[in-house]
Amino acid sequence: MFENLTKTDLYAIISGVFTACLIVSNIIAGKTFSFFSFALPCGVIIFPVVYIINDLLAEVYGYEKARRVILLGFFMNLVAVICFTFTIWVPAPEFFKNSEAFSIVLGSTWRLLTAGFIAYIVGSLVNARVMVYLKKVDEKKLFVRCIVSTFFGESLDAIIYITIAFFGTMPTDALIAMIFIQAIVKTVYEIIVYPLTRQVIGYVKGLPDN
Q: What is each CA distance from 138 to 180, 191, 203, in whole angstroms?
């Protein structure tokens, strides 16, 4: 299945993985979990993978192709939300007993959806832009590019999403703490998996273009 891959072939595969991770992260983001004494959205479990793939796309394929995948992910997530909303809206037969549970898992308020969409598009595009800019400054420092771009992207993502989604529903100090911890956790995640990110980027760079 993965024999004789080219960069073009892998671009299509990466786009699919990126979009799938984004949709899954948005489904599970409606629940929070306790991280020591802090609360974090469950999307933090898988969403960092989106930024790692973002780094790969920007590093290997450039900003324009990374932007296309980011916009594709945005569009497909919107399609998923529309499908979820319509599915919840249509009446269920009497024997279907899980309508409420189905709505809780796949339904979401427009406030959360707006927060997620804005945070994703801003954070992802900034991540890709910073990655490409730093590559022009010093092409040898891959580690710096990955971590700094992720920090900027994830920080903006956390600020936008948590502020729009939770402002007014919790104390301001708890809101600020959630933003800070989420950005740090996601950046540390990137640092931990950087050796794998470097290996994957090196592998993809070594593939033939077509």
A: 28, 19, 20
